[in-house]
Amino acid sequence: MCERMFSRIFSSRSISLFASSVLVLSTATLRGALTEEQSRVPLEVDAPDAKAAKVVLLAGSVSNKAGQHEYFAGCAMLMKCLKQTPGVWPVMVAEGWPKNEAVFDGAKCVVCYMDGAEKLPFLEPARWERMKKLAASGAGLVILHQAVDCPSAQADEFKSWFGAVFNKDIGSRGHWDMTLQPSGKSPILQGVAAFDAPKDGWLFNLHFADKGVSPVMVGKVSDTARSTADAKAHAGRDETIAWSYERPDGGRSFGFTGCDLHKNWGVDDQRRMVANGILWAAKVEVPAAGAPVKIDDADLTSNMDLKPAGATIRKKK
Question: What is the pTM of this model?
Answer without folding.
Answer: 0.88
